Amino acid sequence: MGVVPQFLEYLIRHSLEGGEQVKSKERLPVKAKILWIEAKRADGPSFVLDLRRKGFTVETASTGKAAIERLAEADIDLVVINAASFRTSGKRICQDVRAGREKLPILIIANIDHPLGKENCADVVLMLPFTLRKLMNRILPLLPVVSNNLLQVGMIRLDLEHNLVRCQVKESQLTPKLTRLLKILMQHPAEVVEREDLFRQVWNTEYIGDTRTLDVHVSWLRQAIEIDPHKPQFLKTIRGVGYRLDVE
Predict the structure, then answer these.
(1) What whole-number distance in Å separates Cα of residue 120 and Cα of residue 13?
(2) Is residue 167 one of the residues assigned to a domain?
(3) CATH number of the domain within which 87 lies
(4) Cβ atoms of residues 177 and 201 within 8 Å
(5) Could you give the percent of the chain with pLDDT greater than 70?
């Protein structure tokens, strides 16, 4: 199941915290994380420090292999491949990234000595030389936005309108009930929510004689957000009480 990321055309300065839903017409940014792939001895400015000053979290990798390994561990919003620093077209790294994260936006920095050709897998190609402003203008439309229908708690991002969830490297489509269940847990991060309360709110009923269907839905939700659903990192069972969403 895949999530189609939602993108925005301009940068905004504050991030959404605590799982609160944004009020109508407010547009708050997700704390964007960029993976910058660049050779150790790159010619010219890398812009990494400039982007960090702009409020981005920028992780770096000096090889394609290191980049793929980092993608498997981190929740990355955008990949920038400085192909010019490797003196290549960047095509192989781009294809490797696409193979693992098909919908992840990719920007390639290239030069005229190593053109990408017609089979370009990047979303944006930026030719050297360019300014920081031009780089920002290319990056911003690729970044996710928090709207009035999006909740963000830690690494978990829930699109209430489209029933989509993104957590770490996983992107999944949810059913309406799974969306409702996750929303309740996200509104109470690090708190134990009792089974009976979850059942009442998700199924909108006062009958709580048999809540085993809740356990099934929790299992499905773990499949959507956990790397290893059998050893959950986020959605914990508190035996005899209920469930807790750990987001730190």
Answers:
(1) 32
(2) yes
(3) 3.40.50.2300
(4) no
(5) 82
Which amino acid does the sequence have at 2?
G
CATH number of the domain encompassing residue 214: 1.10.10.10
* Structure tokens, 197: 């309360």
| Cβ atoms of 108 and 122 closer than 8 Å | yes
If asked whether residues 184 and 114 sit together in one domain, one would say no
Give tens-digit pLDDT for 222-243.
999 998 999 999 999 999 999 9
- Give 86 or 247, the one with higher predicted confidence: 86
HSE at residue 98, side-chain half, CA atoms within 13 A, is: 14
Kindly state whether residues 203 and 192 are assigned to the same domain. yes
Q: How many separate helices (H) and strands (E) can be counted in the chain?
A: 8, 14
Task: Say how far apart CA 51 and CA 38 lie, in whole Å.
Answer: 14
Q: In which domain, by residue range, is 66 found?
A: 30-145
Residue 198 has pLDDT above 60, yes or no: yes
Q: Which residues pair with 68 in a beta bridge?
A: none
Q: Is the peptide bond before 45 cis (omega within 30 degrees of 0)?
A: no
Q: Rounded distance, CA 11 to CA 36, Å?
A: 19
What pLDDT is recorded for position 15? 31
Whether residues 109 and 205 share a domain: the answer is no
